[in-house]
Design brief:
Blueprint (H helix, E strand, L loop, with lengths): L1 E2 L3 H6 L6 E2 L3 E2 L2 H11 L4 H4 L1 H7 L9 H6 L1 H8 E2 L5 E11 L9 E14 L2 E12 L5 E12 L1
Parallel strand pairs: 1-4
Antiparallel strand pairs: 2-6, 3-6, 5-8, 6-7, 7-8
Length: about 150
């Protein structure tokens, strides 16, 4: 985990990779729970036998949005900053899913601060988060994530 002592230090790191997280397991149970939470029950995520027969991946794959939803846990592993009154997810600029995440895979994130802007009461950070699959040749998710911290 990268310890960042201040917003000034964060500004000095813009454009540099600051952290690579530990590997995170993507299990069928997690995929099933995500399907229940979102109502997305497409067979390519849930039906192991059908995937063996019909899917080009020959196994179930995680929902793209499940992969995206790992950003908070991965960012928490990646970067530590001093406490603030409030920290919120502000949104996303761009998200792509260049490759699938077969169930049973492990993923991790590479984190780069892209921009730090002052806002009333705090600052806004834009992060490039690249999620890669262990053994994969392409990222499984590339996202520009925006968060805000209020002092």
């Amino acid at each position: 985990m990268r310890q960042i002592a201040s917003v000034e230090e964060l500004r000095s790191l813009v454009g540099q990779e600051v952290a690579v997280t530990e590997w995170f397991d993507v299990s069928q149970e997690r995929v099933n729970l995500f399907a229940e939470a979102t109502g997305d029950h497409q067979w390519i995520h849930l039906d192991v036998e059908r995937c063996k027969a019909e899917s080009p991946y020959r196994t179930t794959i995680a929902h793209g949005f499940l992969t995206l939803s790992l950003l908070p846990v991965l960012m928490q592993q990646a970067v530590s900053m001093p406490p603030s009154k409030l920290s919120v997810n502000y949104g996303l600029n761009k998200v792509r899913f260049p490759a699938p995440v077969p169930v049973g895979s492990r993923v991790r994130a590479r984190v780069v601060p892209l921009e730090v802007e002052d806002i009333p009461g705090g600052y806004q950070m834009t992060w490039k988060v690249t999620i890669e699959r262990e053994g994969g040749d392409k990222p499984v998710c590339i996202a520009e994530s925006i968060s805000r911290r209020y002092e």
